[in-house]
Amino acid sequence: MLVLLTVLGLLLAAVHVVVNGFHDAPNALALPVRSRALTPKVGLVLSALVNAAGVFTAGWLLTEWIIPATPVPLNAVGSAALVCALASTIAWNVFTWWLGMPSSSTTALLGGLLGALLGARAVDLTEQDPLTAAALSQLAVPLLVAPLLAYGLAWALVVPLLHLLRHSEPSTTTFRSQVAQATGAAAIAFGHGLTHGRRAVWVFTTLLLCAGLPVSVRTPEPWILVVVAAGLAVGTLFGAWRIAYTLSSRMITIDPFRGAVAQGVAGSLLFLGGTLIPVSMSTSQTTAAAILGAGRQQRFHTVNVRVVRRVILVWVVTVPVCGFVSATLLLALSPLL
């Protein structure tokens, strides 16, 4: 049973990486493509390459931060919990893509893992309590702290930056905004590679540890880094344009300058967050919040309140839905463990 769970877990981990790249590609590219700072093809290729670079950077330079705070038992129960969490996360990402909603893969996976471990504890398969303070903080940062910070910074920076450009020609401002959007897209993609690559490496490594294989979490296996980098790059190349349309047009309409502010704030937070704090941030929620913050600083508000409410509702229900589905799958597997 352990061998089967390990093989299934590794396959689901690879699929999750590809789906994650596909689902999150619009976070970096929605605004630059809409403002014609980047063409769709160039944007996808750039984002794929930078994502891969972020994965290798995380694997080689940030190995001390690969381990999340969620306690996973290194046995068949841990393998089953990861399999259930990955399955629920993949399903949620596909479902939210179909809805065209930017949702967090980070909180989906953490919620699924916590749900599976709570299910295992309910049937006495493990004695560890997964709801530790550190685990809850890992949920709070991508779900609450990062979006609120991104929204506030983007909202606050529009007016002073606009004041600095008050004497510039409109064409010059537009060109500079497009350059800033393209640069911000690269920063968002790199931050995505750092955070999601680090987490994906942990998933692969933990599955191997649960199977009793001699691998080190502190020194990732080179083949794992290659698989994760290639998976994110391939997924990114397919780009979930349904979500891009929501971010750039359905949720709010903003001009190139405010789009540049949003890209700059999101890119800076994701880059700094990926290198300075050992907690994963959500590229989807950070980027969407920055877009909303910058867009609110317009003379004529163009926020589609109905769509924004749907987006926030998706964010709120991600953890409980993925946790419930994952716990249900774990309980269904429990007689075999």
TL;DR of this structure?
This protein is mostly helical.
How many helical elements?
11
Provide mean pLDDT, rounded. Answer: 87
Gyration radius from CA atoms, angstroms = 20 Å
Distance between the termini: 8 Å
Low-confidence stretches: none
Q: Helix coverage percent of residues? A: over 70%
**What is the chain-wise order of helices and strands?**
HHHHHHHHHHH
Number of domains: 1
Strand content: under 5%
Structural class: mainly alpha
Shape: elongated
What about the largest sheet? none
Could you give the count of β-strands? 0
What does this structure look like?
The chain crosses the membrane at residues 40-62, 74-95, 139-162, 223-245, 257-277, 312-333. Pfam families: PHO4. Keywords: Membrane, Transmembrane, Transmembrane helix, Transport. InterPro entries: Phos_transporter (IPR001204). It is a multi-pass membrane protein. By secondary structure, the chain is mainly alpha-helical. It has one domain (2-336). 77% of the residues lie in helices and 0% in strands. Helix 3 crosses helix 4 (105-122). The longest helix is centred in the middle third of the chain and has 41 residues, at 170-210.
Q: What's the topology here?
A:
Layout (H helix, E strand, L loop, with lengths): L1 H33 L5 H22 L14 H24 L5 H18 L10 H32 L5 H41 L11 H17 L2 H10 L5 H21 L6 H14 L8 H29 L4
Helix pairs in contact: 1-2, 1-3, 1-6, 1-7, 1-8, 2-6, 2-7, 3-4, 3-6, 3-11, 4-5, 4-11, 5-9, 5-10, 6-7, 6-9, 9-10
Task: Name its key features.
337 residues; mainly alpha; 11 helices; 77% helix
